[in-house]
From TrEMBL:
UniProt keyword annotations, A-Z: Signal
Higher taxonomy: Bacteria, Pseudomonadati, Pseudomonadota, Betaproteobacteria, Burkholderiales
PROSITE patterns attached to this UniProt entry: PROKAR_LIPOPROTEIN
Organism: Roseateles puraquae
Annotated signal sequence range: 1-23
Protein name per the record: DUF4382 domain-containing protein
């Protein structure tokens, strides 16, 4: 009797082990996928317009936070909602970043495509596919790694307004999914009255003005950059930073964004148009921190639309020429170490927060 019980138990255990071995491996639990309109266009999330979105696989833009790496043969599969139609007038280029580019998490911070990955469209899956040609490490020139997929180039057309489910899968060379993300794309009925987005066009390609480290009481070595748009997507030119006015604009503790409407290059909130402001945030007790417009050789503030796109960009894409709507900001840290996080906001539009870390010299 005892032998039979032992034999039956052993057989049951063996059968259970066999069943476990044959069971389907559970799917990878999805991560949250954050999405946003791309920082270089005004209407990339508006119904009927060309699709221009960013998909944040690693939402923390801080360069100290590692991004993703790909092994040779691995791929990222961006599965688009069926309502987003492929634009037949635009072909998909495998060897250029015209349709899609991977970035390090900041504007103009591309992970180089040439020699590292190629782009294709999987018609059956209605998905864009990025395939690594070689190992794409999250180090060296690629550091801190892949954080964002930027879909662009009039590759898709936006559908009617609404929220649409979207997903991204990281797939190994053998075909197994190693990571998944799920989120939504929000398509608007009309474009906002105003919009801003972070930009690094004033700096050499790949350089990031956000998340700089500076000594206390020092001016950050790189200017901060913003692209500004006004009504109907027109570039918002002639904007600079004026002193705060807490009586009229108590929210904007770090200064006002003022458009020089009379052309005298003197930013006067009582005469010119206040289009937004800066919400300051600093270590408790810090003093002396300031966000200001850079001063040009003529002694006057450099306003949006007067700032040149860095000459390291090709002339064909505006390198060395004034960039419409581009505003630069000179930031000085305060008296105490810690994080300084000024938030720039357009009235009737959106906002963006920069991070500057001050350390003791």
């Amino acid at each position: 009797m005892s032998f039979r019980l032992i034999s039956t138990s052993a057989a049951s255990a063996a059968a259970a082990a066999f069943m476990v071995g044959c069971a389907t491996v559970p799917p990878v639990a999805p991560n949250q996928l954050m999405t946003a309109p791309a920082p270089v266009t005004f209407a990339g999330n508006v119904a009927g317009e060309a699709t221009d979105f960013v998909f944040m696989l690693i939402p923390d833009a801080n360069p100290a936070t590692p991004g993703l790496a790909l092994r040779a043969g691995d791929s990222l599969l961006l599965s688009m909602p069926s309502a987003f139609k492929r634009n037949a007038a635009t072909s998909v280029s495998a060897d250029t970043d015209a349709n899609l580019v991977l970035t390090k998490g900041w504007a103009q911070g591309a992970v180089r495509l040439a020699g590292q990955y190629r782009v294709s469209f999987d018609e059956a899956a209605h998905a864009m596919r990025v395939t690594a040609l070689v190992d794409v490490p999250a180090s060296g020139a690629n550091a801190p790694g892949i954080k964002v997929i930027h879909l662009r180039g009039r590759t898709f057309l936006n559908p009617m307004p609404g929220d649409y489910p979207v997903s991204v899968s990281q797939v190994s060379a053998t075909g197994g999914a190693t990571a998944r993300w799920q989120g939504q794309l929000k398509v608007l009925d009309v474009a906002p009255a105003a919009r801003l987005a972070p930009s690094n066009f004033q700096l050499p390609p790949g350089v990031n003005g956000d998340f700089q480290k500076v000594a206390t009481g020092a001016v950050a070595p790189q200017t901060l950059g913003l692209l500004l748009w006004g009504a109907n997507g027109a570039a918002l030119n002639g904007v600079g930073i004026a002193a705060r006015d807490l009586t009229r604009y108590p929210k904007y503790t770090g200064g006002l964004l003022v458009q020089d409407t009379n052309g005298d290059h003197r930013l006067d909130p009582a005469v010119d148009k206040v289009v937004g402001g800066i919400i300051g945030a600093a270590p408790q007790g810090a003093t002396g921190q300031a966000a200001t417009s850079p001063i040009g050789a003529d002694g006057r503030p450099v306003l949006s639309g007067e700032v040149q796109r860095n000459a390291a960009y090709p002339a064909a894409v505006g390198g060395g020429k004034p960039n419409p709507g581009l505003l630069t900001v000179q930031f000085k840290s305060g008296s105490l170490p810690g994080l300084y996080r000024p938030t720039f906001e357009l009235i009737g539009g959106n906002a963006y927060q920069f991070t500057i870390e001050a350390v003791m010299p």
